[in-house]
Amino acid sequence: MTVSLTGCSDRIQSLQSILHRQDAEESAAGSTAAAAEPGQTQDAAASATGAAAEVEPGAQAGAGNTSDDGTGAGALEEAGYGEGTVLNICCWDDTLEDLFLKYYPSYVDNGDGTGQLGKVKVQWLMSEDQDDYMKFLSDYLLKADYLGADERIDLFLASEDDLATYVSSTYSLDVRGTLGLTDAELEDQYPFTQQMAMDEDGILKAVSYKATPGVFVYRRSIAQSVLGTDDPEAVQKAVADWDSFVATAGEMKKKGYFMLSGYYDAYAPYRAGATKHWERGGVLQIDDVYPAWASFTKLMTDSGYHRKTFVGDDNWVSDQGPSGKVFGFFRSADDIDTRMAAYSLKNASMPPQEGNGIYGDFAICMGPQAFGRGGLWILAASGTDNATLDAEIMRKLTCDSGVLQEIAQGENIFTNTMSGMEALAAGERTDAFLGGQNAFKTYDYVCGRISAQSANAFDVRLSSAYRDSMLPYFQGDEDMEEATDDFYDYVDRIFPELSLGEED
Fold first, then answer.
1. Which of 65, 215, 460, 491 yields a CA-CA distance of 20 to 30 A from 265?
2. CA angle at residue 226 from 225 to 227, to 5 degrees?
């Protein structure tokens, strides 16, 4: 079994080789990496959405390849996919199982860690933790040809960090052409969640029930002190582009505040402006947004506009707490009412409410660049014997606006239904942590402006490596050319299959 990576299939032969290369990268990189936020892996702290889609949703051949009844069962049967009696779902925690228990129609809990969908038994195969998940899952995928039908993976989850590896491989199925989901069924999803899950031929390989916009989260009291208002529309004008952002940082400094906390805080939104992958045709390429980010961060550092922290370290966390003097943070919607809310409290044993620390002293706006960060995707494994049921689960959990609205309201997460989130954005929903703001209104606005690139197996790690290579430049130990040479040395050492020359 081999992995087919568009543009580099002759260089990366299997999923196992990707794992081996990642292990080598971790041991040989030698660059200073940002600290992970508590509860996250190192790569998760570094990840962010790409930008500027090269292929629009629905552009691939085979879209709408379904049977007459619209279920796709006919096409699946013709392709040789039967239906088994055991559905194996691979994941790293019980998040998806919990959603099945609460929201999936007809799902029955067997009481022994398994479930039932009609006559099909649902087994949850979980790794011990997310750090071990890729190895755990890959062992199943690589051995699929040697396992019995009831032992093979049918569905599996992927985070943003690992999504491209699986989307770019032969181990995941075409959502439209093979599973039979139609353009009409998928059209209510935010486009960027599909763009990220397409291979470089434009084939959609994964779907998500979540949309995870990134926003600029700022302190209301500091905005009032420096800008004279904490209104999100007024604050957005002060951070509408990177030049305005720097100018506002100067005003913050005059009043004794920092605009951001650390070196890498603005990397995610900058990265979202990229219009090309790190690799094309075996050649390394650096999008202009990356040196632009490095120049921006150098200016912010030399001007004293941030506190020189790293994502996840103690100072970065405390900057979001009662003693913090930092105006704002670029954060994912998933983190705001969870991690940020916890950091804001003065007394963690007391209820999270206004008066406990700086809870309620925050608001959000889009900031200079729309971006997404995080996310969770569902993929069907190529060895599945339950393809029809796989497709039906994708329909229910990622295409059914009613189910997605229930999840959004029940779990307080922003879900992947444009019509459903527009309805909640227009309602009276309020967020106590954000001072009563309806966050869904901003989330929906941002999600409509995110444009992501298709999946590329090199992007996440080369992006993180470039970011970390710039640290000596920020700290005054190297100039930008030297730091860039460090990055080239890293690529040559870890990715020898990539040419460092300019592509014609």
1. 491
2. 105
